[in-house]
Amino acid sequence: MAGLAETFTATEHRLANGLRVVLSEDHIDPVAAVCLWYDVGSRHEQPGRTGLAHLFEHLMFQGSANVHGNQHFEFVQSAGGSLNGTTSFERTNYFETMPAHQVELALWLEADRMGGLLEALTQESLDNQRDVVKNERRQRYDNVPYGTAWERLVAMAFPAGHPYHHMPIGSMADLDATTLEDCREFFRTYYAPNNAVLAVVGDIDPAQTLAWVEKYFGTIPAHDGKPVPADGTLPPVIGSEVRETVYEDVPSRSLMAAYRLPVDGAREADAADLALTVLGEGESSRLNTRLVRRDELAVYAGFGIMRLVGAPSVALLDVKASGDAEVEAVDAAVNEELARFAAEGPTPAELERAQAQIERGWLDRMATVGGRADELCRYATLFGDASLAFSALDRVLDITGEEVRAVAAERLLPENRAVLVYELPAEDSDDGSDTTDTDDAEGQAA
Question: What is d(CA 84, CA 102) in angstroms, rounded to the nearest whole number?
């Protein structure tokens, strides 16, 4: 792994307007990736305007000063490239993978919308993309089984008023309330070169690429006045279980839970990642072995991590009950396995297997120019040093079994979880409508 990391290199540069540029040369294939991260996500949004960061991700594909309508897609795809964008709690990114000789085109396209989106932003484009996002919410959240589960858990794990309390998709009401001036102000505040990291990775000439970056991005003025995001600090443990039960016509009963974990970048976050991998990643994991294969209480059992920098990371437990299995039995089995793991920790074989699983994921990301560009942007944006991407695996492989056990004992506790239970509605329900029962924040573990 260290040998592979040493195969890759990256250089960092900064333009006069504050744009950070990361270049990584790789001539294995005649392709290159252009990746642009803006330091803005849903945690930067104001109450009453949730979903604005994600809405803006869509607006950025609706034309700019010299690129009209859907031409951004048309130019990239006709050149043999692919493209997309995503929004999270902590960043918004845009990326293209291009034939190497088309890198200049991708740079020009990204610069044109960074410097000239406001010239093309109209009420018509806002209304159009607002409808697209609202339909996305219906299709991915509101009208699918378990669709709002993660949204509910996030709201339970992060208290009201916390910057991570709401999902990036936002609410229907806030999307409807967003005005054209809200969008213009959002762009002026966050879509600035001094709030972005640009990575170009692949079959490139670094000197020529940097010259193109300077040519297209260098004249875009920096924007001042970006507000400091609200403090996301929370106690390491919730303090008492928070539980909500939803009665809904879903394929099976389900137990889901969110646990607070150490912030990303901390050694303890890597230890937590390993713990969750041992417990809930793959068929040989402890929870799958106990719940699915041995006790036949579940048809699926998984445990994963969402890494966060500005707030506690989150462990997400997801167990789908089998047949007539009761959630109470599932819950008891989960708590038994977590308590046993907290007491004993992973076996040497489990730790080695978990490290190998994380290694495989790291290798998969670093093996493509797009994945590598995204990792370089991530570490530059969130941690201030793109080169940390190359040593991330080494840090995971350095974690000991005792560190894994300790973080599980400290964090995977009944008093440190928000629990969401899906129960099937009663057969004699009057109207079949969904209902929800919620214990208060000081509620007792069930």
Answer: 17
CA distances from 70 to 84, 108, 125, 262, 322 (A): 13, 15, 11, 41, 46
Instruction: Give the contacts of 428 (CB within 8 A, at least 6 positions apart).
Output: none
Q: Is the dihedral of CA 88, 244, 135, 128 positive or negative?
A: negative
User: Per-residue pLDDT tens for 155-201?
Assistant: 999 999 999 999 999 999 999 999 999 999 999 999 999 999 999 99
Exposure string of 241-250, with b = 16+ CB inside 10 Å and e = fewer, is: bbbbbbbbeb
- Which of the 8 DSSP states describes residue 251? S
Do 359 and 393 contact (CB within 8 A), yes or no? yes
Which residue is listed with tokens 């293209």? 96
| Burial state string for 405-434 with b = 16 or more CB within 10 A and e = fewer than 16 | bbbbbbbbbbebbbbbbbbebeeeeeeeee
pTM higher than 0.90 for the full model?
yes
In the three-class reduction of DSSP (H, G, I as helix; E, B as strand; rest coil), residue 231 is classed as: coil
Q: Using CA atoms, how far apart are residues 275 and 400, in angstroms rounded to an integer?
A: 11
Helices (H) and strands (E) in the chain, counts: 16, 12
Amino acid at 130: R
Residue 63 is classified by DSSP as B
**pLDDT of the residue at 7:** 76
Using CA atoms, how far apart are residues 198 and 373, in angstroms rounded to an integer?
Answer: 9
DSSP at 441? T
Q: Decide: 21 and 15 in contact? Cβ < 8 Å.
A: yes
Helix (H, G, I), strand (E, B) or coil at 234: coil
Q: How far apart are CA 338 and CA 343, in angstroms?
A: 9
Residues 56 and 117 sit within 8 Å (Cβ to Cβ): no
Sheet holding 92-99, edge to edge: 11-14, 20-25, 196-202, 31-38, 92-99, 82-87
Q: CB under 8 Å to 401, separation ≥6 — which residues?
A: 345, 346, 347, 348, 351
Closest listed residue to residue 219, CA positions, set 76, 103, 108, 91: 108
The amino acid occupying position 376 is L
* CA dihedral (185, 187, 191, 192) positive or negative: negative
Residues of the chain with pLDDT under 70: 1-6, 427-446
Answer whether 303's CB lies under 8 Å from 275's CB: no
DSSP 104-165: HHHHHHHHHHHHHGGGT--HHHHHHHHHHHHHHHIIIIITSTTTTHHHHHHHHHS-TTSTTS
